[in-house]
Design brief:
Elements: H1 13-22, H2 29-39, H3 53-62, E1 70-75, E2 81-86, E3 100-107, E4 112-115, E5 119-121, E6 136-139, H4 142-156, E7 163-167, H5 177-188, E8 200-204, H6 208-217, E9 222-226, H7 232-238, H8 247-256, E10 263-269, H9 277-286, E11 292-298, H10 312-324, E12 328-331
Parallel strand pairs: 4-7, 7-8, 8-9, 9-10, 10-11, 11-12
Antiparallel strand pairs: 1-2, 2-3, 3-4, 5-6
Helix pairs in contact: 1-2, 4-5, 9-10
This protein binds iron/sulfur cluster (SF4).
């Protein structure tokens, strides 16, 4: 049901303390509420047992305390699950007629990865990406980012499970910096979810001003730079943003920035486009002076897009060429292709 009450996941601890104080609650109630919401992952005020019944009813009357609803789930046989989540837009609320996003839960050897969305659609229209074909509808609010994590954690059913968060779902996170930053504060804070920042990666095409802000404000959050080409000309053809945010200025920034770990560069390998050994050597020259680790991602094909995945032998040749020149390379064969939840495959019909 659509509700006009303010959404409690949109409130920082300080804001909630101020509001609850004004509404006549005790000072520590906001802190108790935060514990239920984020640490115990319980969004049902009726069951918040350390808060008295009268206050629980009052809280229910004041706030929408729930997560956004899961509309459908698709699973593959490797334990990857894709969740379609309804947002509150639309005359009939989140379940019907409103906007939707996708979030993906990936089972790894010793942990889980949550792949999270930050926008409904994406304005950047990278040629190889299904999300880019959707166009852009709007930024997600901080609560909508947090709600994805709470929902996926609940699905795990194991509160102690080790979780990595990757902002690699729908949208360019750094074009929604303010909401991403609000969400990160609550994800990392011990009063919120308490997830260590080293378990969080933000994938970006490189929106320089906001990248600098992110690295200043959250120095331990990892950056995954979506590179995808060995020069700005080809990158500009694959990723139109590269004409505005050029590789030259981004790499100058990366070269000048001291970081504890190597910079992760993502390189989606597209058959006959960016997968030749000569392009691998050009990539080595491009990254000269930047301690970098390359994640090679053989393309996950989309029926609506013209690109293809290279043969395994081509991927291996490209990788070998990079390694021969001293780069650290990991080939990432994406999971979840059978349910279109792999890297670059998230896309839904916007109503
Ligand atoms: S790759 Fe990322 S930035 Fe590019 S269109 Fe897809 S979601 Fe947007």
């Amino acid at each position: 049901m659509k509700t006009d009450k303010p959404w409690i996941l949109e409130r920082s601890l300080g804001e909630l303390q101020d509001e609850l104080r004004t509404a006549g609650f005790r000072d520590y109630t906001a802190w108790q509420v935060f514990q239920w919401l984020y640490q115990k992952n319980n969004q049902d005020p009726a069951s918040w047992s350390n808060i008295n019944k009268q206050d629980r009813e009052k809280l229910s009357g004041l706030y929408d305390c729930g997560c956004r609803p899961v509309l459908s789930v698709q699973s593959d046989d490797q334990g990857t699950r894709k969740y379609l989540i309804g947002l509150a837009d639309g005359p009939e609320g989140p379940r019907r007629g409103g906007l939707k996003i996708e979030a993906v839960l990936i089972r790894e050897k010793d942990h889980y990865t949550f792949c999270l969305s930050t926008q409904v659609g994406c304005a950047l229209a990278c040629g190889f990406c299904a999300t880019g074909t959707m166009g852009f509808r709007r930024n997600l609010r901080a609560g909508e980012i947090l709600s994805q994590i709470l929902t996926l954690k609940k699905e795990l059913g194991d509160p102690g499970a080790k979780v990595n968060l990757v902002f690699m779902g729908m949208g360019e996170p750094l074009l929604n910096y303010d909401n991403l930053s609000l969400a990160l504060q609550r994800i990392i804070s011990p009063d919120g979810m308490g997830i260590p920042p080293r378990h969080i990666s933000v994938s970006t095409v490189g929106i320089l001003e906001n990248l600098k802000k992110l690295e200043r404000n959250f120095p331990q959050v990892k950056i995954a730079f979506s590179l995808n080409a060995p020069n700005n000309d080809l990158r500009g053809r694959l990723m139109p943003i590269s004409r505005r945010e050029t590789l030259g200025s981004l790499l100058t920034y990366f070269r000048g920035k001291k970081r504890r770990q190597r910079l992760t560069c993502e390189y989606v390998l597209l058959k006959g486009v960016n997968d030749a050994p000569a392009q691998a050597r050009e990539l080595v020259r491009l990254l000269h002076g930047i301690p970098a680790k390359i994640n090679l991602i053989p393309y996950n094909e989309n029926p609506s897009l013209p690109f293809q995945r290279p043969e395994e032998a081509t991927v291996e040749k490209f990788r070998a060429e990079l390694i021969r020149h001293g780069l650290t390379v990991i080939t990432r064969w994406s999971k979840g292709q059978s349910i279109a939840s792999a890297c670059g495959q998230l896309a839904i019909q916007l109503d």
